[in-house]
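Structure in, sequence out. Go:
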């Protein structure tokens, strides 16, 4: 009887893991737009490189991205 109970428990746990894993994989990454912050003034070389990286990220992820330059 103990062996049957243990086997039933194992089957139920495997079933729960299989059902739970489908729910966890439902969201796509990233769920929100990616924001790239460049801590230098706009128009400089860092800003240009950051915008190039943001463009490539947008192409690769397939989601919209934003570039923000916040320099003095």
């Amino acid at each position: 009887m103990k062996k049957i109970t243990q086997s039933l428990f194992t089957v139920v746990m495997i079933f729960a893991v299989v059902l739970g894993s489908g729910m966890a994989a439902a969201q796509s990454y990233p769920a929100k737009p990616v924001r790239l912050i460049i801590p230098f003034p706009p128009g400089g070389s860092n800003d240009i490189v950051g915008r190039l990286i943001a463009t490539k990220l947008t192409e690769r992820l397939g989601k919209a991205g934003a570039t923000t330059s916040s320099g003095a």
